[in-house]
Design goal:
The structure is a single chain. Helix content is about 25%, strand content about 30%. It is built from 10 helices and 26 strands. Helix 4 (about 360-370) packs antiparallel against helix 5, helix 4 (about 360-370) crosses helix 7 (about 410-420) and helix 8 (about 435-450) runs antiparallel to helix 9 (about 455-470).
Length: about 500
């Protein structure tokens, strides 16, 4: 089979464009492995046999050897870009300079027992990067707003961190325990979750767990070659590995923008080899995820990979490089949260009854996604985005606009509209406290035109007749999509045609 593999691969890839790779391995039945040796044909997407022509079907056997058609490894690039109602480890975070992973939750040892704050742990190059400072806002899943007018994605403020430098001396940020003049040892940082100070603009909720893995039970400093471990990252999802080596690895990190700049981490990183469940232990974007043992204890903080993926093929050996967690906790002065044990912080940061059912940002993203699924929706969304910040500022800071918005139940109507986006059966009320949706739009049109900029006032004048007329028929996201499909667009500017805009 090994001798035949190159010819089999070439033949299949020539005749079937969907084939990414061919390998020798055990045939699967569903999620179970059999003991049948087969040519495993890795495809980009698996299609039902009934939807293919006979000549498009991959043969059941090749030269008497069974085949097994499998979708390309989930460990290559799952790219979980979802927004999460309840923060957990293993999900995407960013400060707007590339994507990384939220590792787990920690507390600072210096804070008194009765007043511990909750922080998220990740890599310095993820939540501080080149331009970050103390107080830099972290977003999930998208970049933070950078202002107080829209906080859908904002989850935390950077507190402290440490990273190596080309000169070999650790660079620190904020309050850490790293001795002055220390050599390059870790790439790690923490950020304080919003909602724990009176001045915080919003509250963020968390669960002391890792997606796809479960509750975190603190950390374990001891780790040995041969130990089985696992991690969950935003790019490759849940992957399994084995500790290949510890204490003594010298890892050189090359700057992405300038490869001539090299940072050497000497004597501290550990090497994790991928197991058969996944050919790749980590990939770009998994930085910041934590590595756990079989007891769900954090043993290391992942910060780099050895190997990449191109067209479904692993380049390199797919290993991950990580820092022992006891080194990270010692130098930053932190402790990993432990769930379900006596006197520990409970599984969730607050009682279950207090957890908000969903963050508004998830509804907004779904609304935008549905609007952008039709050409007319793109123009509609652009009109909203052109004026969103000014409208939010007026609602927050202008008394007349704020009073009108709340008296005519603006937040309640928007809440129903957004919830209907993900649940079409959710009804839009005909009125709230005696005011209809049309009443709200008429009043808001009046106060926004009077208090807004010339650009906003003109937009209100141009589009309010359509909005008022449509409000009488509105009963959910589908009616908005239907109306937009019927609404003619100008071939020159691409915006909805209206007599106030087009002569």
């Amino acid at each position: 089979m090994i001798a035949m593999l190159p010819d089999v691969t070439r033949e299949l890839q020539r005749n079937y464009p969907n084939v990414r790779n061919v390998e020798i391995g055990l045939k699967r039945r569903g999620r179970d492995l059999t003991d049948i040796l087969a040519f495993r044909v890795i495809v980009e997407e698996k299609v039902n046999d009934n939807d293919l022509l006979p000549e498009q079907l991959i043969p059941k056997e090749i030269k008497g050897i069974p085949t097994d058609v499998l979708v390309k490894y989930s460990g290559f690039a799952t790219d979980d870009t979802s927004g999460y109602d309840l923060l957990t480890g293993g999900i995407q975070i960013t400060i707007g300079e590339g994507m990384g992973t939220l590792g787990c939750f920690v507390t600072r040892d210096a804070e008194p027992a009765g007043n511990k704050k909750i922080y998220l742990l990740s890599n310095h190059h993820v939540i501080v990067a080149a331009s970050g400072v103390v107080g830099t806002r972290v977003g999930q899943p998208s970049a933070p707003s950078g202002s107080r007018c829209c906080l859908c994605y904002d989850i935390a403020d950077v507190f402290c961190g440490e990273r190596g430098t080309p000169g070999g001396t650790a660079s620190t940020l904020g309050t850490v325990l790293t001795p002055a003049g220390s050599s390059n040892t870790i790439d790690a940082a923490i950020a304080k979750l919003l909602g724990q100070d009176a001045t915080d603009p919003k509250t963020v909720y968390f669960s002391n767990s890792i997606e796809d893995i479960g509750p975190v039970f603190g950390s374990a400093p001891a780790i040995l070659p041969g130990d089985r471990v696992r991690k969950r990252g935003r790019t490759t999802g849940l992957t399994f590995g084995k500790i290949e080596s510890i204490a003594g690895i010298n890892f050189a990190e090359h700057d992405k923008k300038d490869p001539s700049i090299v940072i050497n981490y000497n004597g501290s990183p550990i090497l994790v080899d991928p197991l058969s469940e996944n050919q790749l232990m980590s990939n770009e974007g998994d930085s910041g995820s934590v590595i756990l043992n079989s007891r769900n204890q954090v043993v290391a903080l992942l910060f780099a990979g050895v190997g990449t993926v191109s067209n479904g093929v692993v380049n390199g050996n797919g290993q991950a490089v990580a820092f022992p967690i006891n080194l990270v906790t010692t130098r930053l002065g932190i402790s990993i949260l432990s769930s379900g044990t006596a006197s520990s912080i409970p599984l969730s940061g607050i009682s279950e009854a207090q957890i908000k059912p969903i963050r508004a940002g998830n509804y907004i993203r779904e609304f935008e996604k549905q609007m952008r699924s039709i050409p007319e929706g793109e123009a509609f969304m652009q009109i909203l985005l052109d004026h969103r910040n000014e409208v939010m500022d007026l609602i927050n800071d202008n008394r007349e606009v704020k009073v009108a918005w709340h008296r005519f139940n603006g937040p309640e109507y928007i809440g129903h509209v957004l919830k209907n986006t993900t649940d079409p059966k959710h009804p839009i009320p005909t009125d709230i406290n005696g005011y209809s949706f049309q009443n709200l739009l008429i009043k808001m049109g009046d106060v926004l035109e009077r208090n807004g900029s010339r650009k906003l006032a003109k937009a209100v004048e141009d589009y309010s007749p359509f909005a008022f007329r449509f409000a009488n028929e509105y009963n959910g996201i589908d009616s908005l999509r239907t109306a937009l499909k019927k609404f003619p667009l100008c071939p020159q500017c691409g915006k909805p045609i209206h007599k106030n805009v087009h002569a």
